[in-house]
């Protein structure tokens, strides 16, 4: 995709790079050849906006276009740039890792590429066939993860800790024997009871996570979903969780869903976060000090329409003999 020599003055090239959105687009297009729709999903911008910026970048000579069936694909290849553009791009590229959206764009790019690989062995066949869109049209989204909840033991008692308005309890309720939702916020609990009052096997209880209103060894599993970052001392809470867990029927498991480590310091001010996410080492350390073993940590795929930090799921069990 060798570019023709640019007839544009340097001022036009600099103007094209002056828009931060275009720098984000160029960064992902250097990593991978993408369609307009895929660039839109990675950057979370409308396709019309992406198309406009791509047109400008193509006119100046920063990106090359090629058509495959009905799709137009874009790519930035530094070695193919005009000799007047290449050094300019290389100088700018070295600064792009610090852009506010860089980490999010990288995660969403990985998600887009993973979906591309899953949909079809041949990406261009996917463009023509669009099986994923057909499946979504027929069955909607999210049915697979909800169906897999049936793998849970139907006799389990599960604690939903920091339950909020009851989203986790709602998902678990049809698949387990009983759910105990605990939250210190009475307004949240009232909202949960109003939403889920018809669910016979859910009980909502007011309580502090550092002193749970749950007897010793009385629940099979405990879930903390988007809760841990609000807790000043996670290890202390996990020790209390361990107290409530039993080991019958394969239970004694704690599960955490939370944010990966990030740099959005404003979350401390705007939402009262105590921690800016967690690393695998953080979570393994908290679990270990609380007496858990069999620790597993897995980064969750990034949804391309999600604007928050990436998420992880971690689980652990009570260590044998403790």
Structure in a nutshell:
The chain has 322 residues and is α/β, with parallel strands linked by helices. It has helices at 10-17, 20-31, 36-43, 47-60, 86-93, 102-119, 123-129, 131-139, 143-148, 167-172, 186-196, 234-244, 266-271, 280-289; strands spanning 34-35, 64-68, 71-75, 157-161, 178-183, 202-206, 221-225, 253-259, 292-299, 311-318.
What is the alpha-carbon Rg in Å? 25 Å
Spans with pLDDT under 50 lasting ≥5 residues? Answer: 1-7, 122-130
Our count of helices gives 14
Quickly name the level 1 CATH class of the largest domain: Alpha Beta
- In the CATH scheme, what's the topology name of the largest domain? Rossmann fold
Distance between the termini: 63 Å
Count of distinct strands: 10
Give the amount of beta strand, in percent: 15-25%
Mean pLDDT: 84
Written account of the structure:
- With 322 residues, this protein is an alpha/beta fold.
- It has two domains: 10-108, Winged helix-like DNA-binding domain superfamily/Winged helix DNA-binding domain (Arc Repressor Mutant, subunit A, Orthogonal Bundle); 143-318, Rossmann fold.
- It is built from 14 helices and ten strands.
- The protein has helices at residues 10-17, 20-31, 36-43, 47-60, 86-93, 102-119, 123-129, 131-139, 143-148, 167-172, 186-196, 234-244, 266-271, 280-289; strands at 34-35, 64-68, 71-75, 157-161, 178-183, 202-206, 221-225, 253-259, 292-299, 311-318.
- The strands form two sheets. Strands 6-5-4-7-8-10-9 form a seven-stranded mixed sheet, sandwiched between helices. Strands 1-3-2 form a three-stranded antiparallel sheet.
- Strand 7 (221-225), helix 12 and strand 8 form a beta-alpha-beta unit.
- Helix 12 (234-244) crosses helix 14 (280-289).
- The longest helix has 18 residues, at 102-119.
- It is elongated.
- Mean pLDDT is 84; it is low at 1-7 and 122-130.
């Amino acid at each position: 995709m060798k570019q023709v020599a640019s007839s544009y003055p340097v001022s036009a090239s600099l103007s094209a790079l002056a828009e931060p959105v275009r720098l984000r687009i160029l960064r992902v297009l250097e990593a991978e050849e993408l369609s307009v729709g895929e660039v839109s999903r990675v950057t979370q911008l409308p396709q019309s906006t992406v198309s406009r910026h791509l047109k400008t970048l193509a006119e100046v000579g920063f990106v090359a276009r090629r058509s495959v069936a009905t799709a137009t694909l874009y790519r930035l290849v530094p070695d193919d740039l005009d000799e007047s553009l290449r050094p300019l791009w290389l100088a700018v590229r070295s600064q792009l890792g610090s852009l506010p959206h860089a980490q999010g764009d990288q995660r969403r790019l990985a998600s887009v590429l993973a979906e591309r690989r899953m949909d079809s062995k041949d990406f261009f066949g996917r463009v023509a066939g669009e099986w994923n869109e057909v499946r979504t049209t027929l069955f909607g989204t999210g049915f697979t993860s909800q169906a897999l909840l049936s793998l849970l033991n139907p006799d389990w008692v599960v604690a939903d800790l920091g339950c909020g308005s009851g989203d986790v309890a709602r998902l678990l309720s049809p698949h387990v024997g009983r759910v105990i939702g605990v939250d210190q916020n009475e307004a949240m609990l009232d909202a949960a009871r109003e939403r889920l009052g018809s669910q016979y096997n859910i009980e909502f209880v007011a309580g502090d996570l550092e002193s749970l209103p749950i007897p010793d060894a009385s629940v099979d599993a405990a879930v903390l979903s988007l809760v841990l970052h609000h807790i000043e001392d996670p290890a202390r809470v996990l020790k209390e969780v361990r107290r409530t867990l039993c080991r019958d029927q394969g239970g004694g498991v704690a599960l955490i869903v939370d944010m990966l480590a990030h740099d959005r310091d404003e979350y401390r001010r705007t939402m009262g976060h105590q921690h800016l996410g967690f690393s695998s080492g953080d979570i393994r350390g908290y679990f270990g000090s609380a007496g858990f073993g069999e620790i597993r940590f897995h980064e969750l795929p990034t949804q391309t329409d999600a604007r928050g930090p990436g998420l992880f799921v971690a689980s652990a069990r009570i260590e044998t003999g403790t």
